[in-house]
């Protein structure tokens, strides 16, 4: 049998609809997290609410790989957009990832991951292309599973599907000056 794909989300509500569609679902708890295993459109998956923050996400991804043998990890969920033109409901598939709050200066350059000598991590092209195709299919099928009340409450239109760099960090932005500085970096 094919190794499962791991799906992580930062909030439990982001996986509830997915888990409800699993075939042959089982659920167990480890490390204060509920892992839901099953088949989704014939593909074995393990999904979990990772909790907030990079450390929680890293620990959960490690657990998915070591204990559940996942072959790929997809992190999905709600994010704040700072780039102009991105609306609520748009789908962004990452081409590269950067930790906007990583700063080990003066030992390393800003954003550089210590000992890797890199400031950004590129995503895997074939996985990215599969995700883009899946997003296009989801949108062209009329957003199955997204209810009319949800669409109205959030003003969801037909989502844009974008492949772009993603900056992540353990920080909320509320001041326009900080957002501008982030965009500049």
Give a topology summary.
Blueprint: E1 5-9, H1 13-20, E2 23-30, E3 33-40, E4 43-49, H2 54-68, E5 72-76, E6 91-99, E7 121-122, H3 125-140, H4 148-154, E8 161-168, H5 176-184
Parallel strand pairs: 1-4, 1-5, 6-8
Antiparallel strand pairs: 2-3, 3-4, 6-7
3D structure, described in words:
- With 185 residues, this protein is an alpha/beta fold.
- It has five helices and eight strands, in the order βαβββαβββααβα.
- Strands 2-3-4-1-5 form a five-stranded mixed sheet, sandwiched between helices. A three-stranded mixed sheet has the order 7-6-8.
- The protein is globular.
- The termini are far apart.
**How do the strands of the widest beta sheet line up side by side?**
2-3-4-1-5
Strand content: 25-35%
Overall shape: it is: globular
Which runs of at least 5 residues are low in confidence (pLDDT < 50)?
Answer: none
The count of DSSP E runs of length 2 or more, i.e. the number of strands, is: 8
Question: How far apart lie the N and C ends?
Answer: 44 Å
Helicity range: 25-40%
- Number of distinct helices: 5
Q: What's the alpha carbon Rg, rounded to whole Å?
A: 17 Å
H/E topology pattern:
EHEEEHEEEHHEH
């Amino acid at each position: 049998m094919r190794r499962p794909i791991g799906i992580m989300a930062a909030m439990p509500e982001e996986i509830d609809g997915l888990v409800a569609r699993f075939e042959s679902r089982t659920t167990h708890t480890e490390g204060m997290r509920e892992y839901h295993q099953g088949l989704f459109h014939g593909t074995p998956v393990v999904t979990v609410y990772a909790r907030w923050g990079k450390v929680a996400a890293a620990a959960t991804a490690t657990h998915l790989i070591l204990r559940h043998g996942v072959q790929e990890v997809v992190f999905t969920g709600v994010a704040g957009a700072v780039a102009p033109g991105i609306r609520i409901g748009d789908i962004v598939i990452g081409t590269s990832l950067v930790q906007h709050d990583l700063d080990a200066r003066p030992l390393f350059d800003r954003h550089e991951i210590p000992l890797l000598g890199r400031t950004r991590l590129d995503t895997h092209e074939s996985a990215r292309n599969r995700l883009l195709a899946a997003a296009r299919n989801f949108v062209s099928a009329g957003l199955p599973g997204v209810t009319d009340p949800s669409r109205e409450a959030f003003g969801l239109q037909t989502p844009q599907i974008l492949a772009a760099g993603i900056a992540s960090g353990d920080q909320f932005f509320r001041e326009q000056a900080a957002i501008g500085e982030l965009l500049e970096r």
